Amino acid sequence: MKLFATLVSGLLVLTMNGQVKKNIFELHTRPISLLQGVITFGTEVQVGEDVSILFDGGAGASLIDNAGGGSQTSLTTFMVGARKYFTPISTVTRRELLKKAPFRPLEGLYVTARHRSRFYSDGNYGANTNVMIGKKVLIDQLSIAGEAGIGRQSLYGEAFVLPTFAVTVGFRLQ
């Protein structure tokens, strides 16, 4: 079921929104994961006028997953997702009229649907599939995004519906 959901969301993104003249490509990391001991590296690629796909991978020994004590296990994690940006025309027009920086694609308010799989060195599997709403701000080529939502989290065969959040810091390639 998880694989099916991931494939369907990927296909929707690729067929959702027409052609793009120049794709935007960003490299990013997740600072909260870094603070937890998991090094992450990912990308966001524009596939439509206001649609992008996300890929992310990481590895390390998560401090949170090992909080219960016992032997330290390491993990490898992979994520795939899609984003749809919703930037009102009034916001773009206002920025132009006030002579602020022009509004750029893949900036502003968005909705993300994503799935992350976690493979632990002790043989366990964990995953989260969630939907979040967020906002991305661009400062020159630096992007900072924050999002919050709800999702299905699983670990050691147990599944829960929990609130979730993410912070992403990236660099937009020109």
**SSE ordering:** HEHEEEHEEEE
Q: Nearest-angstrom radius of gyration?
A: 17 Å
Tally of DSSP helical segments? 3
Count of all domains: 1
- Calculate the terminal CA-CA distance, rounded to whole Å: 38 Å
The shape, in one word, is elongated
Notable features of this structure?
eight-stranded antiparallel β-barrel, alpha+beta, Porin, elongated, single chain, 174 residues
Question: Could you explain the architecture of this structure?
Answer:
Strands 1-2-3-4-5-6-7-8 form an eight-stranded antiparallel beta barrel. It is 17% helix and 55% strand. A hairpin with a 2-residue loop joins strand 2 (38-48) and strand 3 (51-60). The chain is an alpha+beta fold and 174 residues long. It has a single domain (2-173), classed as Porin, CATH 2.40.160. The longest helix has 15 residues, at 2-16.
Describe the secondary structure blueprint for this structure.
Blueprint: H1 2-16, E1 25-29, H2 31-35, E2 38-48, E3 51-60, E4 75-85, H3 89-97, E5 108-120, E6 125-139, E7 142-155, E8 158-173
Antiparallel strand pairs: 1-2, 1-8, 2-3, 3-4, 4-5, 5-6, 6-7, 7-8
Task: Describe the structure concisely.
Helices cover 17% and strands 55% of the residues. The longest helix is centred in the first third of the chain and has 15 residues.
